[in-house]
Amino acid sequence: MHGGARRGIGSVAIGLSALLATGCGVMPSPEAELQDALARSVDRAQDTFWPYRADIVSDPEAAIARIGSVSDVRPAYADPAVVPAGGSLKLLGLAASDDGTSLILATSAGVETGGGLFYDQRSAAVCFELRFPAGERKIHTFASDCTDGQGHGLADVAEVIDYTRYGEPRSIDGLDVRRTVTTEDYPSMPCQCASGGTCDCPGG
């Protein structure tokens, strides 16, 4: 190889090293992007349930039935022929008491990165628990083993809801998720009156 060619290759290598060193060319790994996507899926679940938190404490079954993005997979525990309705959030278990209500949920996410020889596609599922304490305007989020605490869980319905393709579910313990959301995360919108309409804002 000629000296000029070697110098050219060396210059390219040095240039790439300098680019990476400055952080300009550093891209998150496919695994990091997947973890971020899973965390966002859990965040969206918190966002979805927030407006229903009081109803989930007082009448959880009725409240769950009104949330279109929730797919109740529990009937498939007893009858595998039951195909639960579609929904990005899979309800694996529900427990209610005077202290509040807990929901065991599963959801999934996928990412595509790179292109050409560097193309990468991966997806995974994650299980978690949302706990709605009675009389409190907050939702707590905990890790879950994907079971309902009564001998049933994701493993019983994975084929029915096409979750076998995700492999072993992830834990939120490895994700950057909000462990508790409160009214500070969901501030009330300012009251606005439409011109010519009935105004319910304080003071009219």
Which class do the helix and strand fractions yield?
Answer: alpha/beta
Q: Could you tell me how far the N terminus lies from the C terminus, measured between alpha carbons in angstroms?
A: 83 Å
The number of distinct β-strands equals 7
Low-confidence segments, given as residue ranges, are 5-23
What do these coordinates show?
By secondary structure, the protein is α/β, with parallel strands linked by helices. The protein has one domain. It contains six helices and seven strands, in the order ααααβαββββαββ. Strands 1, 2, 3, 4, 5, 6 and 7 form a seven-stranded mixed beta sheet that branches. The protein is globular. The relative contact order is 0.15. The model is unreliable at 5-23 (pLDDT under 50). This is Lipoprotein.
How is the topology of this model organized?
Elements: H1 3-22, H2 30-49, H3 53-58, H4 60-65, E1 70-72, H5 75-78, E2 89-97, E3 100-113, E4 120-133, E5 138-143, H6 154-157, E6 170-171, E7 180-182
Parallel strand pairs: 1-2, 4-6
Antiparallel strand pairs: 2-3, 3-4, 4-5, 5-7
